[in-house]
Design brief:
Largest sheet: 4 strands, parallel
Strand order of the largest sheet: 1-4-3-2
Strand content: 15-25%
Number of strands: 4
Distance between the termini: 25 Å
Oligomer: single chain
Radius of gyration: 15 Å
Length: 146
Amino acid sequence: MVGRKEERRLLEEAAEKRDAQFIVVYGRRRVGKTYLIRETFGNVFTFSYTGVYGIGNKRQLTEFGKSLNEHSLGSATTPDNWFDAFDALRSLIEQSKQKRRIIFFDEMPWMDSRKSDFVSALERFWNGWASGEKHLTLIVCGSALS
């Protein structure tokens, strides 16, 4: 990757820290934010989800539930709300055998539809649990215009 050595170094260093890390990557559309993150971590994540543009909250939760199932190889039900979704994500993370647990939300602004309570649920997830977890890195990504 040309010209991204410093960004890669910063991502790798943050993910290697013992304490939990919350990383936000944002910028203009089509500049390679997602590519940078995927290439830096070899597209290996404990969990990843890409928000879908223009769909309602219920469908977004359905898609998030599908992603939970793909990463856990289980048969979890579709979460009813974002609080339940983050509870299910917590369970998936707690079951992970990976030493370095990396969670990646791409196109995060599209996950926060009107009256979805996404931001409140994310805040509870991070401040109530994830920020105290060792070797956990949460990376969120979105376009500046989203």
